[in-house]
Structures are given as C-alpha cells and as structure tokens.
Please model this.
Amino acid sequence: MKRLGGKLGEVRAARLRIPVGALDRTLVVVESRELLRGQKRGIAAALRKAKEELRKLQRLAARGRITREALEERVAKALRREHLSEFVVAEVSGQGKRVSLAWRVDAVRRRRLERTRLGRRVLCTDRHVWSTGRIVYAFRGQWNVEEVFRRAKKGGIVPWGPSHQWTDSSLRLHTFATVTGLTLVSLVRLATGTRQSILAMMKTLAEVKATLVRVRTLERGRRPTVLLAPDLNAEQRKAVKTFELERWMPGLLSSIRSNASRTSAEPAA
Model:
C-alpha cells in the first residue's frame, strides 16, 4: 500500500494488473478510514445481537430444550452477518438434547480482520493507462452521475418525464435527448469549476442577459439599437470567458471590463 499524492495524500492504495476470468483488468485496493469506521460500527451492533442470541441458546442447551442440529443451525445463523464467524468462536458438544454451547470473542482474530480486510475497497477497471489517483477520483465521483440521474427522474434539471411517447423508437429518442442534455449540463459544471449545485449553476447562467434598446431619432428609416450590457457576478464573468460568449454578445465583454475597472478603482474601506 502506497500513499497517493495531491488531494489524496491521506489515501493509501495498492495496484496490480491481473486476469479476472477471461478479462484483463487493473485492480486497485483502496484504504478508507470512513468505511472502516462504518464497518466497525456495524460489527459492534451485530455482535451485541449475536451475544444475546448465543446466551439464549446456551440457556436452551443447558435445559435440554434444543437438539444439536437445531443448535448448530441457529449458531451459524447468529454469526452469519458482519464477519462475526471469523472472530467469534463457538463450540457445540454433546448429542441429541444433551448438548452444550461454549463461545468466546477472539480479540486477536478480530484485530487481524480489521488490519487485513476491513476498510478496503477493490476497484476493477479496464483503464490501464489511468493513474491510481485518477481511478480513485473516478470512483469517488460516481455519486455525481447517480445524483444527476436521480434528479432527472424526479423532474429536476433536464427531466426525463413526463414522456408523452407511444413507440419504442420515440422513447429511445426521448431518452437519448435527456442523457445528452444531462451530459452537456455536467460538462458545463466541469468547465466552469463551480461548487454550486447544478440547479443553482443553471439559475446563475440563466441570468446572463443583455437588453437591446431602440433609439428614437428624427431621421427616417429603421431605428438604431443599443446593447445595454448586464451586470455580471464572478461566476457569470467566468462562464462568459470560458464559453467565449462575447463573440455573440459583444456587450458582455465590455461589461466584464467595465466591472473589473470599476472594482479596481474603488478605494479600500
């Protein structure tokens, strides 16, 4: 396990390339402290329930009210969850209804389990040329894709429904258009580097507007128009530069310059 650089400096990972069945895959084993803490909490909760069940089974065995087969089955069921069978040692002895149950929690096995298996994720990919850090980043960024599709189903930005289509081809085209829209929105967010949500980002960009005003003159013919540049905030100015919107609306560029010069000219408080 080696530490990754940059923002992943606290993350350790190991990498290898092996065949997975008939497939050539790169595997990245990543340590996760958050996952380890969650697994420990889950094991502690499951262990409390298992201890109650094992004590109950001990009492039933001592009273001769359970057979060996039933006792072994219920012990296995009690230790089935959260790796309990790997560090909880249970021994059933006797025959028929004259059976006994002895069990204990092996602390050494439990520490070995936490040190060697818990708190680790195995990432499998065919992106062999990607760096380990990029693979980890891609995995951690999957929630963004899932969140976008979840919001699309609920009627958020670029909603999939309601779909008033009746044929399979129309439904496929409708879905293709929705996914294309979601892709474009996500690419806009990546290009601008904003930390806003997609909904807030689209609302901010929708406010980039310029007004054309027709000027009254005494001359005949078509009246000239004047473009009134809008006031832009930092997010909007960055979007104008990123997507080169000044090519279509020159007033936006002048607005950026005037706002920047006005800001620099203002005296410090």
